[in-house]
C-alpha cells in the first residue's frame, strides 16, 4: 500500500532524510525507532504533507498514487492520518464540531452524504467508550486546556472516528504516564485491522510493550540502518542506539 | 511546494456579491451642500418648521467644525461639495402606504439581496424596514406590530405621524453638535427607521432595517431612533450593502437608542458595505455615530456588530449609563482584508451607581488590512460601584496586516472595578496544517479558526444573523490564504 523509495528531505537547507526505503502493507504495524535527530518525526511529517520540509529526492507511492504530489487534505481524504506529537489548540472550536467537519470533508470527497450532528454523536459515543474519553471532552475547544494525556488520547480518538487506512503515530507516547500510555495503546490495538496499516514513530521501546509491532526499523542519520521483527526493539532497549550507530560508522569507514 | 510565507500570503480574488446596480429613475438634488440644499431636502419631505430649523442649526454648526483626524485611518480628503445629498427612486412617493406603492424594480433588488419584502415570503419573526439610497421604501409587518402599540416605520413617516415622540428624543443622545459626521447627518439626513416600544411591551419579533446605497456619488445619511419605554424590550437588526464602484462613497449615519426604566434594547449590525477592490480602489467610507442612553434604572443596551465591509470603518457604538444599575454591552467582530481600514470600538460612560459594562472586541486583519480597537471607559464621580470588563483580542492572518489597540480609561471614583484584557495572536501555520491533516481545506481551516476566535461575539447575535455572520466571515476571508 505504501512504498517509500530513496526519500530525501531537508529543512532550512539542512539534510534530514538521506534516502529512506520502506514498504508497508495493509494490516501491518511498523515501528520506526531512532535517537533524537535521526529524522523519524521528519519522515512522519513528510508523509503527512507538512511543507516546511522540502522533499529533494525519491518518491512515495500510496495506493498506486504519487503521494508527494497530493495536498495534505487530499492525503487525509485518501485515508492518511497522523497523530501529532504536539496536537494543536484551536480556541473557540468545539472538538465535536471540528471532528464532524473533518469527517464530513472526508466523506464528501468519497461521494458520501454529510453526517448530521445527531448521527455523528452516535458514532462518537461508541468510540468514546472504546477510548475511555469523557463526554465533556467533546464540547471543549479542540485541545485547549487539555492535559498532555488528554491531548494524545484525543488524537487516537480522532483516529478512531476518521478510520484511516494508514495511521502514523508521531511519538504518541511522549509525555504520557504509564496509565495514559496503556489507555492510548489499548485504543490503538483496538484499531488494528487487516484493512489498516499503522506506523508507530517512537524513541522508546516502552510503547512497543503495548503496541506490538510486526516490523521494527531503526533510523539513524536520516537512513534506515537496521530492520527486523519486534525483538529488535528489545535488543535496542538493552544496548541503546549507540552500538548501532557505531556499527554503521564502522561500515562506512570500512 | 509552497513555502509557509506564500501559503498565508494574501491573494484576494473574490468578487463582492452585492455589487450590482439597479437602473431606476431618481429624484436627485444637485451635488454640493449649502442652506438651499438643506431646505430642499426638508421641503421634499414636507417637514415641519421645527425640523427644518434643527437641520439649519446643524448645518451652520457643521460649517464651524473640522473633520476629525485622530482616527488610525488614512484616506484622501473628502470633497463634501462633490457629494449628492439626496437621491430617491422616483416611484416611491413620500408616504407610500404599502408594498403595492413600491416600484417592482426595487422589490426585485431586495429579492436579489435576499431580503424579500413581501410579507408572505418573510422569515417569520423579522419585520423589515428597507432604506434605498435616501428613502425608506417599505416597512413590513406594520399592522401586526401596531396591535401591540409598537411603532415601526420610516423616519419621515414618524416625523409626520408621531412628531411629539420624534421631537422629544431626536438629538437627545447624539446632539446635533456632537461630532463632524453626526452634525453633517443632522443637517442632511434623508430617512431612516423609527421605532417606539410602549410600556411593558416585549416586541415579539426581530425588527430589521436594511440599508442599500445604489446611486452613484451619493452619500447615505440615515438616522435611526429607537425608544424603549418602561419595561419594554426590543431586538433590532441592521444590514447593509452597496454596489461596486471605483469611487468612494460616504455613509454617515446616526443611531440613537433610548432605554427607560427596566427597558432593554439589543441592537445587532452586520455591516457588509462594498469594501473596495483588492487594490483598495473604491468602497464605502463608513463614518457612523451610534449611541445608546440607558436613561432609566435597570435598563440595558447591548450592541453587537459584525463589521466586514467598507473601505473605512469609523464607528464607536457607545452607552451612556445614566440610570442606576443600568448595563451597557458591546460585542464586536471587525474584519479587514485587502486594503480595508477599521477604527472601531466603544465608549462606556458610567454616570449612575452600580452601572456595569462589558466590552468584547475581536479584530481580524488579513491582507494589508489595518484594524484598530479604540475604546473609552469613563467612570464619573457619582458612579459608585461601577464595574467594567473589557477584552480585546486581535488575530492576524499573514504578515502584511496590522492590529492596534487604544484603550482609554478614566476613573473618578475610588469605588469602581475595571478590568482589561488584551491579546494578539496569529493564525499559525501549524493550526492550518493540523486542520488540513484532518481533511479540511485551507480556506475551511481559516474560516473555522476565525469563527472560533469570534465565538464569544457570535453567540450574542440572534440565531439567523449568527449563521449569516459566520458565512459572511468565511466569504470575506476567501483568498486570504494561498
Word description of this protein:
- The complex is a heterodimer of chains A (254) and B (482).
- Chain A is an alpha/beta fold.
- Chain A has a single domain (2-253), classed as 3-Layer(aba) Sandwich (Rossmann fold), CATH 3.40.50.
- Helices cover 39% and strands 28% of the residues of chain A.
- The longest helix of chain A is centred in the middle third of the chain and has 15 residues, at 95-109.
- By secondary structure, chain B is α/β, with parallel strands linked by helices.
- Chain B is built from 12 helices and 23 strands.
- In chain B, α2 (35-44) packs antiparallel against α3 (49-63), α6 packs across α7 (163-169) and α9 crosses α10 (442-453).
- Chain A binds chain B through residues 48-52, 54-55, 71-73, 75-77, 81-82, 84, 87-93, 97-99, 101-103, 105-106, 109, 141, 158, 162, and chain B through 1-4, 7, 428-431, 433-442, 444, 448-449, 451-456.
What's a concise summary of this model?
The complex is a heterodimer of chains A (254) and B (482). Chain A has 254 residues and is an alpha/beta fold.
Keywords:
heterodimer; A: 254 residues; alpha/beta; Rossmann fold; 9 helices; B: 482 residues; eleven-stranded mixed β-sheet; ten-stranded mixed β-sheet; 23 strands
Query: How many β strands of chain A by DSSP?
Result: 12
Mean pLDDT score of chain B: 82
The profile of the biggest β sheet of chain B is:
11 strands, mixed
Q: Given the C-alpha coordinates, what overall shape of chain B results?
A: globular
Q: Which band does the percent of strand residues of chain B land in? A: 25-35%
Number of helices of chain B: 12
Category by helix and strand content of chain B = alpha/beta
Shape of chain A: globular
| Main sheet summary of chain A | 6 strands, mixed
Please identify the structural class of chain A as seen in this structure: alpha/beta
Mean pLDDT of chain A: 91
Poorly predicted segments of chain A: none
| Amino-to-carboxy terminus distance of chain A | 36 Å
Helix fraction of chain B, binned, reads 10-25%
Amino acid at each position: 500500500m505504501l512504498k517509500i523509495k530513496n526519500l530525501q528531505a531537508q529543512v532550512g537547507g539542512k539534510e534530514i532524510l538521506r534516502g529512506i526505503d520502506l514498504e508497508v502493507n495493509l494490516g501491518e504495524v511498523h515501528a520506526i525507532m531512532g535517537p533524537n535527530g535521526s529524522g523519524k518525526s521528519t519522515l512522519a511529517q513528510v508523509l503527512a504533507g507538512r511543507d516546511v520540509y522540502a522533499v529533494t529526492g525519491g518518491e512515495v507511492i500510496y495506493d498506486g498514487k504519487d503521494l508527494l504530489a497530493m495536498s495534505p487534505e487530499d492525503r487525509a481524504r485518501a485515508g492518511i492520518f497522523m497523530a501529532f506529537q504536539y496536537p494543536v489548540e484551536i480556541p473557540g472550536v468545539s472538538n465535536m464540531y471540528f471532528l464532524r467537519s473533518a469527517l464530513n470533508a472526508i466523506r464528501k470527497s468519497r461521494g458520501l452524504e454529510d453526517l448530521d450532528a445527531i448521527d455523528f454523536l452516535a458514532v462518537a459515543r461508541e468510540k468514546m467508550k472504546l477510548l475511555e474519553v469523557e463526554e465533556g471532552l467533546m464540547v471543549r475547544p479542540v485541545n485547549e486546556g487539555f492535559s498532555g494525556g488528554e491531548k494524545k488520547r484525543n488524537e487516537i480518538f480522532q483516529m478512531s472516528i476518521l478510520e484511516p487506512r494508514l495511521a502514523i503515530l508521531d511519538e504518541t507516547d511522549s509525555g504520557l504516564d504509564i496509565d495514559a500510555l496503556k489507555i492510548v495503546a489499548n485504543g490503538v490495538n483496538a484499531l488494528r485491522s487487516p484493512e489498516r496499516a499503522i506506523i508507530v514513530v517512537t524513541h522508546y521501546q516502552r510503547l512497543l510493550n503495548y503496541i506490538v509491532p510486526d516490523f521494527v526499523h531503526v533510523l539513524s542519520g536520516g537512513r534506515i540502518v537496521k530492520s527486523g521483527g519486534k525483538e529488535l526493539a528489545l535488543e535496542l532497549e538493552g544496548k541503546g542506539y549507540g552500538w548501532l550507530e557505531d556499527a554503521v560508522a564502522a561500515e562506512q569507514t570500512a | 511546494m509552497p513555502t509557509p510565507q506564500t501559503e498565508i500570503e494574501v491573494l484576494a480574488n473574490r468578487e463582492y456579491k452585492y455589487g450590482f446596480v439597479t437602473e431606476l429613475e431618481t429624484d436627485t438634488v444637485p451635488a454640493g451642500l449649502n442652506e438651499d440644499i438643506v431646505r430642499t431636502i426638508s421641503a421634499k419631505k414636507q417637514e415641519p418648521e421645527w425640523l427644518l430649523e434643527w437641520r439649519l442649526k446643524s448645518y451652520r454648526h457643521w460649517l464651524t467644525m473640522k473633520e476629525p483626524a485622530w482616527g488610525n485611518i488614512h484616506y484622501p480628503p473628502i470633497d463634501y461639495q462633490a457629494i449628492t445629498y439626496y437621491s430617491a427612486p422616483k416611484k416611491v412617493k413620500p408616504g407610500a402606504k404599502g408594498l403595492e406603492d413600491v416600484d417592482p424594480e426595487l422589490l426585485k433588488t431586495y429579492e436579489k439581496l435576499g431580503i424579500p419584502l413581501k410579507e408572505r415570503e418573510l422569515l417569520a419573526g423579522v419585520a423589515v424596514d428597507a432604506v434605498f439610497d435616501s428613502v425608506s421604501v417599505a416597512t413590513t409587518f406594520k399592522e401586526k406590530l401596531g396591535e401591540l402599540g409598537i411603532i415601526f416605520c420610516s423616519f419621515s413617516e414618524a416625523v409626520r405621524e408621531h412628531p411629539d415622540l420624534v421631537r422629544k428624543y431626536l438629538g437627545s443622545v447624539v446632539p446635533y453638535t456632537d461630532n463632524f459626521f453626526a452634525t453633517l447627518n443632522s443637517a442632511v439626513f434623508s430617512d431612516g427607521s423609527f421605532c417606539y416600544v410602549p410600556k411593558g411591551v416585549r416586541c415579539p419579533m426581530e425588527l430589521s432595517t436594511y440599508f442599500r446605497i445604489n446611486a452613484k456619488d451619493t452619500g447615505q445619511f440615515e438616522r435611526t431612533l429607537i425608544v424603549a419605554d418602561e419595561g419594554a424590550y426590543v431586538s433590532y437588526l441592521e444590514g447593509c450593502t452597496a454596489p461596486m464602484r471605483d469611487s468612494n462613497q460616504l455613509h454617515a449615519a446616526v443611531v440613537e437608542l433610548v432605554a427607560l426604566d427596566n427597558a432593554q434594547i439589543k441592537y445587532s449590525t452586520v455591516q457588509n458595505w462594498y469594501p473596495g477592490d483588492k487594490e483598495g480602489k473604491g468602497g464605502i467610507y463608513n463614518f457612523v455615530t451610534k449611541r445608546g442612553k440607558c436613561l432609566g434604572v435597570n435598563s440595558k443596551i447591548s450592541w453587537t456588530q459584525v463589521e466586514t465591509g467598507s473601505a473605512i470603518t469609523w464607528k464607536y457604538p457607545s452607552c451612556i449609563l445614566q440610570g442606576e444599575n443600568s448595563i451597557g454591552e458591546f460585542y464586536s467582530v471587525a474584519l479587514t482584508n485587502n486594503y480595508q481600514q477599521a477604527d472601531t470600538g466603544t465608549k462606556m460612560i458610567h454616570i449612575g451607581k452600580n452601572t456595569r459594562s462589558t466590552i468584547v472586541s475581536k479584530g481580524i486583519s488579513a491582507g494589508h488590512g489595518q484594524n484598530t480597537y479604540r475604546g473609552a471607559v469613563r467612570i464619573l464621580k457619582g458612579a459608585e460601584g461601577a464595574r467594567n470588563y473589557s477584552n480585546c483580542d486581535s488575530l492576524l492572518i499573514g504578515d502584511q496586516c496590522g492590529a492596534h489597540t487604544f484603550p482609554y480609561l478614566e476613573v473618578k471614583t475610588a469605588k469602581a472595578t475595571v478590568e482589561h484584557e488584551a491579546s494578539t495572536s496569529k493564525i499559525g501555520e501549524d493550526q492550518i496544517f493540523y486542520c488540513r491533516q484532518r481533511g479540511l481545506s485551507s480556506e475551511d481551516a481559516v474560516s473555522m479558526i476565525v469563527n472560533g476566535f469570534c465565538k464569544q461575539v457570535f453567540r450574542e447575535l440572534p440565531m439567523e444573523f449568527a449563521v449569516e455572520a459566520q458565512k459572511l466571515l468565511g466569504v470575506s476571508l476567501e483568498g486570504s490564504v494561498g
